[in-house]
Amino acid sequence: MVTTQSDPMLRGDPYAADCPTRRILDRIGDRWTVLIVGVLGEGDARFSELRRRVCGVSQKMLTQTLRGLERDGLVRRTVHPEVPVRVEYALTEAGRTLLGPLRALQEWSIEHLSDVSAAQKAYDGAE
């Protein structure tokens, strides 16, 4: 059975192939999502600022990721009617709830970088 937070009788199962929770996990587990949410956790940002801060993201991937995050209710896009038009992105309340878990993953990756690097070198050398 698939759940929504507003209906306690429904329950998601990310291990079921057809469960929508898999799509949510795909979204929040995406590397660009992790980095974009991290930047937006520091405050609202324009597209150009996000692109500058998230090194390596292409314009296309940034656009796709922001649209997906907006569709999922994690990011709010605000268009300011100015000349030229100014567009800002911000985390929604739901998006802010991701900051803790995503920061924990970022901290884990920093803390275990040398262990993972050593394991990769050992594995690659054993081939």
TrEMBL record:
One of its GO terms (molecular function) is DNA binding. Pfam families: HxlR (PF01638). Residues 19-117 form the HTH hxlR-type domain. SUPFAM superfamilies: Winged helix' DNA-binding domain. It comes from the Bacteria. Keywords: DNA-binding, Transcription, Transcription regulation. InterPro entries: HTH_HxlR (IPR002577), WH-like_DNA-bd_sf (IPR036388), WH_DNA-bd_sf (IPR036390). Gene3D superfamilies: Winged helix-like DNA-binding domain superfamily/Winged helix DNA-binding domain. PANTHER family: TRANSCRIPTIONAL REGULATOR, MARR FAMILY, TRANSCRIPTIONAL REGULATORY PROTEIN. This is Transcriptional regulator.
